[in-house]
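Contributing: when you submit paired examples, paste them exactly as shown. First protein:
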Amino acid sequence: MKLKNRILFILLIIFMSIQNISYAIEPPPAQEEISGEAAILMENETGKVLYEKNAYKKMYPASTTKVMTALLALEKLDLDKKIAVPQDFPQVDGSSMYLLPGEEFTVNDLIRALLIHSSNDVAVLLAMEISGSVEEFVKLMNERAVEIGCTGTHYSNPHGLHDDNHYTTVYDMALISREAMKNETFRKIVAEPILILEPTEKTPEKRIYNNTNRFLWSNEPIVYKNQYIPIKYDAVDGIKTGFTLEAQKCLASTGIKNGIRMIAVVYKTTEYDVFRDSRRLLDYGFDNFKIVKVLSAMEELGKEAIKYSVQKNLKYAVTEDISYITPIDAEVSYDKKIELDELKLPIEKGQKVGKATITIGDDTKEYELVALDDVESIFTFKHLKELIMSKETNHIKRNILTGIIVFVILLIILRVIRSNIKRKRRKRRYKKLQ
């Protein structure tokens, strides 16, 4: 019996050890744990998707649309430019700043009102300023979406008020958010918890608005991991909320923790669940993954022997940092395949010289290779002169090199003389024919 008990005890310890290993990394949220009809978690630097639920399903984006409107305004307009509200400015439904004809605002303040207060009338004013009309601006929105890589997005307006033909996917919204977060001004604005606009001649009181993204300021409680916690989450620094009856509550959010930026998008859920879902996704990313820099931009990746060159070798590198997101306890290795172009001397520093195919885990991508230094031919006057002048070159070699240079110069002179003689003969023949 004692032997059996020992065996059972050992088996119990082994079982408990296996259980502990299995849960070293928190499992991703189950689809039923995310109340939103569609959701996604993307790591910002690599664009790697870490969680998805109906990621490519057509959804109504509501006011998350304004991320695209703001991005285009930042790309097309001067932030200090003042825009006056036209006398015939149309009335716009929904959340608005109630712009009055004749009021003037800087582009910067309008974009802040667009993103912080979610002002629909500001979206229309910016669209008209950029493209002359809402219809023309919508074309620009759809073109920019395609440039970013969106395949399931179609815009019909700049604000997100419901239209059956105005839709996106949470994957596309993550791509758009990632693109917008590259812009320093955008990052600064979406992190502001409150907007205060000074009085105008038409509106004598200050306009004061809390950011619709309550991750930035609200102490209202939500139930998270079986306890009440405030909505406010210090790791979060953006991006944009949305709501219509058809879209319900939507949120594209981003935050940074442990040096990693995550982007979460949750569509079609309730007021408090949109923050609970989003935090669950963000924390899953923060707590379980790390970024590993595999290769650094302009750091020597390899070298190739180059015949008849002064430097003897071509050193090459990729032009951008290559990083990979991986579970915290995993090691990262990579495979590379180098394909150099047909190279001719001279080669200039920064010149494209080939491509590298890098495989990390299940990801394979091609990167441009460039020369790290100039590579010069040994058959140049500059190089021959340096050899002649070098202290390491003995008297005999110096005489030989000098003779080579003189010989080459004579050949060039002879070629020029022959060319001139031929030109003169052609001229004489031409005159005779006349």
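Second protein:
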Amino acid sequence: MSRLAAREVTGVVLAGGQGRRMGGVDKGLLPFAGRPLVAHAAGCLRPHVGELVINANRHRDAYAEHADRVIADVEDGFQGPLMGIYSSLRAARTPWVVFIPCDSPALPEDLVERLVTGLAERGEGTDILVAHDGERLHPVVALMRRSLADDLYQALLAGERKIDRWYARHAWAPHDLSDCAAAFANLNTEEERVRLEAQLSEARP
């Protein structure tokens, strides 16, 4: 498989959750190291994609400052990341879409480049490439075909809400990113946010 060009990939930041474990806050807009969390995610994607989209269900005007487009879930009710993935696949204008969450501010700057390279190395048969940190998968850090939208729609209609079960319906593969495992830390509590912010601050020269 030839290597994808940036114009063939839409970058999506998933920021449509309820933030229940943080008391219902809109996590993507929380400050982190002087910027909203979503700004760190957008910076990871921006140089490597043809269009940057944020999937958000609240505060769309605030998110619009960080993306080319902001799209909401096609159905209300905070139905989880699989609904966000479907809504983004449906909205994308490129054959491939790369997803990252809004609450992993330490993702490597070359993440998209590494996923694109991994896809090219695997050949034509791969539909979904999922980041693996050496110990576990990170299902919302993934590169996938936009053409999967119709199948995902049918799965959602049938009540499916588990990402791993839907991936298993397709030709998916893990991509080894164990050399930067710590970069996949995501923030589910205020304590985790403060701790990671301190760690990254200490790591800077």
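If you have annotations for the second protein, write them as plain sentences, like these:
The chain has seven helices and nine strands.
Residues 47 and 167 are 27 Å apart (CA to CA).
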